[in-house]
Amino acid sequence: MFNLSKKNLFIAIFLISLIALISAYFIEHILGHQPCSLCLYERIPYFLAILIILINYKYYKLEKYFILSLGIIFFIATMLSFYHLGIEQGFIQESLLCNLEKGANTIDKDEILKQLQQKSISCKDVTFKIFGLSLTSYNIIISLLLTINLTKIYFRYEENR
Prior knowledge:
Blueprint: H1 6-30, H2 37-41, H3 44-58, H4 63-89, H5 96-99, H6 109-117, E1 129-130, E2 133-134, H7 135-155
Antiparallel strand pairs: 1-2
Helix pairs in contact: 1-3, 1-7, 3-4, 4-7
């Protein structure tokens, strides 16, 4: 992933994002591992990346700004993943982000009872690992590498036209 051209980087980001999302949904729906709230938030950058790359093909003249946007998105994704890893490893306590459930503002007692009966997934519980690493660890690696490459390409944009 080092020293990729702009075109190849866009293709790589598109494919990585697509594979990451397909894998996440496969692990969730086929293998039955329920994601925590932070896991769900960590999918958002990949959706945004796919959207930005598709828009880039229509508005090619704004490519430099799309590269900057992707760099910012994956930097935020890296920070979110580090935060999640800190919770998984016990360095950081779970916050409200981990406890947000659908209908958190529900006042109806029947709804509250239903929510209490549902199994809640904690952000500190790792339910799926590949080669001993959680998916959050892989997300850190991917997001960090993409951030570095996007930053390089952004600052060298004029040289590589």
